[in-house]
Amino acid sequence: MIDHATYDALAYGVMISGAAAFVALFFVVAPYGRHARAGWGPTIPDRVGWMLMESPSLFLFGAIFFMGPHHGEPAPLALWAMWTVHYANRTIVYPLRIQSNKRMPIAIPAMALVFNVTNATMNASWIGSLGSYASDWTRGPRFIAGAALFAIGMIAKSAADRRLFALRASKKGYAIPRGGLYELVSCPNYLGEITEWIGWAIASWSLGGLAFAGFTIANLAPRALSNHAWYKRTFDDYPRERRALVPFVL
Q1: Number of helices (H) and strands (E), helices first, in the chain?
Q2: Which residues are CB-contacts of 182 (< 8 A; sequence separation ≥ 6)?
């Protein structure tokens, strides 16, 4: 268990690292997926990398949460369930659905592992022991609004992932995604994930939740812009009306 001072330090550390990542990602595109390239050291299979780097968010988070005194309360349990559904998919389901034999530099999961240990410790400690979810009447409306936003984001992300998996199963190499939110943005999966963690920040009403939502935006917004530029370079017929991340805006 961590105390409030350590919790605050972790949250501000995540905010600072998010700001640094946001700036860095405009100059260096993370070398995995369609942006994979040589020169980043030893590599491991994508499937192994995803499982390795996401596992603390599933298993460490659950262990810390259930050691806390609030683990039997309704709101913390609901928050644990939201988090666990997301990361069970990211740690187990998503990697098992990867159909390619691509590899990623081991530096990518190594860096993500450090972040995920920090982030899981911070958020699980808050909902399991440090936070309070029965002290004021506004908790109910805020929690419901945040949980609804989280669910909307998860649905959008899952639908986008399904379309990508179906497209990759039917094509050799990359193709232009069609249908659903792909008609509006190049990266609806990123938009869905950002929406999820904004919802989590509202539902948990915590500094750690805010830090994680900010880090997610800082990490995925530049990535979405890079993906959007890649699509336009790669496909002459790429729809001009699509935006990178936010419909009609960005």
Answers
A1: 9, 2
A2: 160, 163, 188, 242
Confidence of residue 11 (pLDDT cuts 50, 70, 90): very high
**Which has the closest alpha carbon to 7: 174, 121, 150, 172?**
121
CA distance 88 to 61: 11
Evaluate whether 52 touches 103 at the Cβ level (below 8 Å).
Answer: no
Nearest alpha carbon to residue 208 among 10, 1, 66: 10
Separation CA 168–CA 55 (nearest Å): 25
Ordered by start, the domain boundaries in the chain are: 4-234
Q: What confidence tens digit (pLDDT) does each residue in 80-138 have?
A: 999 999 999 999 999 988 877 788 889 888 999 999 999 999 999 999 999 988 776 66
**Who's near 225: CB < 8 A, 6+ residues apart?**
244, 245, 250
Query: Positive or negative, the Cα torsion across 118, 211, 218, 194?
Result: positive
Within 10 Å of residue 101's Cβ, how many Cβ atoms? 8
Q: Which residues neighbour 116 within 8 Å (Cβ) at sequence distance 6 or greater?
A: 53, 54, 55, 56, 57, 60
